[in-house]
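Justification of computing resources. Each target in the renewal requires a structure prediction run like the one illustrated here; the chain below, 282 residues long, is used simply to show the kind of job we budget for.
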Amino acid sequence: MYTTIIDTETVASNLNNPGWRIIDCRFSLADTEKGRTAYGDSHLANALYAHLDDDLSSEIVPGQTGRHPLPTAEAAARVFSRWGIDRSIQVVAYDDNVGQVASRLWWMLRWLGHENVAVMDGGWEKWQKEGRSETADVPEFGVSDFPVEVKSSSITDVEHVNNVKENPEICLLDARAGARFRGEVEPIDPVAGHIPGARCAAFEENSGPDGLMKSPEALRDRFRVLIGGTETSHVICYCGSGVSACHNLLALVHAGLGEAKLYPGSWSEWITDPSRAIGTGE
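Resulting structure tokens:
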């Protein structure tokens, strides 16, 4: 069973394994159909496509939700059932951005009790660089009955974050790049800055220059600096819209540090209420 990171060689040897389900999660915020178009052109054999907006998010409610609201457990389970996933299936997710969107699928499956899911290290770029097989064929799988076992300890909401944001026993980690965290730039959301009390933990720093996830030892060193003596169960991860924060959650588990919580609404939900405090700078 693979539960965090999986290498391309292992995936290549299981492309036709009926007990595996490979999910292509390529997506671009700048062009929301780019990933789906790329999938239509070429993808891993027997891979299905997961669209961040359509499959891994619910409908945006202006002024209330963030940019990628988390679906209900029931809605997510319907998607997973449509893909033929049940508890026996090993799921592998990949994308073309060091696992940013793939980690959202990884987290959602674990949130609903499905542990055997992993992100393909190096993603589409590494697969192509290695000259591995590609196809434009779209596979068909029978519908399954995906069981819902919500892990409530995996998630928190805006009210809780607002109440504990300055609590010294809680550690808020912001997965956005440093300039966005500090409020120097904000290319996506209408307000710049971060949740007061948070620490910058840019998700890109979980990977090395080769685009591969850093070793568990290196990740442990990184997060021990970031969270200090805070218990991982008291760590809350967020980002712009609840997607790249999942990369930090994946890295924490891969490092052997355990499971933190996701604040799915993240910064884009936080700023819908102008009464909520905003931090800038370091």
